[in-house]
Amino acid sequence: MKISEMNNEQAADALVKLAEPLGNICGDEEMLQLIEKMKGAQDGPVFTIISDILPKFALYALQKHRADLYAIIGALTMKPVAEVARMNFKATVDTIRESYDDIIRDFFTSSVPATMKSES
Question: DSSP readout, 15-63?
Fold first, then answer.
C-alpha cells in the first residue's frame, strides 16, 4: 500500500518501521556506489544496466540487506516479516512496484540534514 493511501495512524506506524531498514540500506557505502552506478548508466545503453549493474545490485541487496528489504515490504503491506519471507516472489515484486510513493522519498530525504546531502 502506498503511504499516500494510508490513514495517519497507518502512515505513522509504517514510517517508524521504515526508518531503520532504509537507514541501513542508505548508509551502506557499497550499496550507494551501486546506486550511483545505476544512475550514471541511465545515459548509456539499457543493456548495460540490465546485464551488468542490476544483477549486482539485486545480488548485493538480497545478500546484505534481505532483512531490511523484508522489513520495508512488511511496513508497506502491514505484514510481519515472517509472512513477507513466505510471500510469492512475483507478488513481492508487484507489491514493491505498487507501493513506491514519492511521499516516502520526500519524507526521508527532507529529513536528512543539508550537510549530509552535500557530502553525498
Answer: HHHHHHHHHHHHT-HHHHHHHHHHHHHTTS-HHHIIIIIHHHHHHHHHH
pLDDT digits (tens, 9 = 90+) for 46-85: 666 666 766 777 788 889 999 999 999 999 999 999 999 9
Q: Is 78 left (phi over 0), alpha (psi -120 to 50) or beta?
A: left
pTM check: above 0.85 = no
* 7-31 burial code (b ≥16 CB/10 A, e <16): eeeebeebbebbeebbebbeebeeb
Contact indicator for 112, 15 with CB cutoff of 8 Å: no
Q: What is the 3-state secondary structure (H, E, C) of 64-91?
A: HCHHHHHHHHHHHHCCCHHHHHCCCHHH
Give the residue among 102, 30, 42, 104 at the shortest CA–CA distance from 73.
104
Candidates 18, 36, 39, 41; CA nearest to 109 is: 18
